[in-house]
Amino acid sequence: MDRITQLQDKIEQLSLMMVSSLDTIHKRAEMKQVDPNYPVTKKNEISIGSESIEDVIKASAVKIRNQIKDIDTLIKALPKIEKTKNQKNELDDLEKDANVSKTNLEKEMVETRNYMEEVSGIFRSLTENHI
Questions:
Q1: Rounded to a whole number, what is the distance in angstroms from the first to the last CA of the chain?
Q2: What domain range includes position 6?
Q3: Does 22 share its domain with 60?
Q4: pLDDT score at 32
Q5: Same domain, yes or no, for 74 and 89?
Q6: Are 42 and 95 in contact (CB under 8 A)?
Q7: Where does the UniProt annotation place the signal sequence (predicted)?
């Protein structure tokens, strides 16, 4: 698996962790009144204690932080732009060299065919004269 694919996978995992954490916090936290005009009329049936929800939040934060560190490590491992430009320049030079070699080879092949025809003509004339 290449680095870009690993990076995509880590980012996808991070987004799933964040959504999962928000969902858990939303479902498990106790309801608090934030506006005096809107009183809390019903208790969250599946809430866990405020101390327990703090532990859940901390655990989720640690998982997310570790995932972000992994993503940073993968990003740092990506090739630098300058290196990529140098590699492109090297590839361009190699391509030019390959094209020059191809042209030279084509010329040599034409010369070789001419020599073969010349030699074949000499053999033909020798065989015709001796028969």
A1: 71
A2: 1-78
A3: yes
A4: 75
A5: no
A6: no
A7: none
Kindly state whether residues 35 and 92 are assigned to the same domain: no
Section 26-51 average pLDDT: 74
Q: How many domains does the chain have?
A: 2
**Integer CA distances (angstroms), 9 to 22, 28, 87, in order:** 20, 28, 27
What proportion of the chain, given as a percentage, has pLDDT over 90?
47
Q: What is the pLDDT of residue 47?
A: 66
One domain, residues 9 and 62: yes
How far, in Å, CA of 114 to CA of 121, rounded?
11
Claim: this prediction has a pTM higher than 0.70:
no
Whole-number Å distance between alpha carbons of 114 and 118? 6
* Residue ending a domain, choose from 51, 78, 105: 78
Distance CA 92, CA 41 (A): 71
- The neighbouring-strand residues paired with 38 are 35
Compute the distance between CA of residue 53 and CA of residue 72 in angstroms, rounded to an integer: 28
Sorted by sequence, the CB contacts under 8 Å of residue 91 that are 6+ apart come out as none
Is the CB of residue 28 less than 8 Å from the CB of residue 56? yes
